Amino acid sequence: MTEIQRLLTATIDRLNKEEKRDNRPRFSISFIRKHPGLFIAMYLGWLATLAVMLQSETLAGSVWLLVVLFVLLNGFFFFDVNPRYHYDDIDVLDLRVCYNGEWYNTRDVPQSLIEEIQASPRVSAEQKAQLEKMLTRKKALSFYDIYSLDKNNGPARSLVNTTTASRAH
To answer: What stretches pass through the bilayer (predicted)?
Structure first.
């Protein structure tokens, strides 16, 4: 494990603990706060369906099923799940992106991580210089930016540079 990977992993673990990102469902009424109109429309639609079912001779016997299904399905709106972040999710495009989103591109790293990287003797001078360039260009860095510092500093980078240089001649 490289120093940047270790620092990134430690930061991700700390964020998971601070924000209670543990993949567990928690009771919350945030859906009602964020979408009050949708919540009211949902209940109005249910009441309209209930009224139609009670008026119908063929559907009146299955009203209990409507009520049970509505209560069960409505219960999902009262739970939030904070997905846990993982180092291995960075730069991976699969079904986890549907669940977690591309958090590593949209979320800025804490300033403390940047300071730790700059102060670490185990991070190369080249990586620190690249970090400084990124900071002057972007001001705020994402988790992917820090990940790319480590990713672009291996043997693959020198191979790409050699190949690119030979094509230029």
So the answer is: 36-55, 61-79
pTM over 0.70: no
> d(Cα 11, Cα 17) in Å, to the nearest integer?
10
With cut-offs at 50, 70 and 90, classify the pLDDT of residue 162. very low
The answer to whether 69 and 12 are in contact (CB under 8 A) is no
Give 113's contacts (C-beta < 8 A, 6+ positions apart). Answer: 7, 8, 11, 146
Which pLDDT tens digit goes with each residue over 77-120? 888 888 888 888 888 776 666 666 678 888 899 999 999 999 99
- Give pairs for 141-145: CB < 8 Å, separation 24+: 141/108, 141/109, 141/114, 142/104, 142/105, 142/106, 142/107, 142/108, 142/109, 143/8, 143/12, 143/90, 143/103, 143/104, 143/105, 143/107, 143/109, 144/90, 144/91, 144/104, 144/105, 145/109
Query: Between β-strands 25-27 and 79-81, what pairing exists: parallel, antiparallel or unpaired?
Result: antiparallel
Question: Which residues are registered as beta bridge partners of 25?
Answer: 81
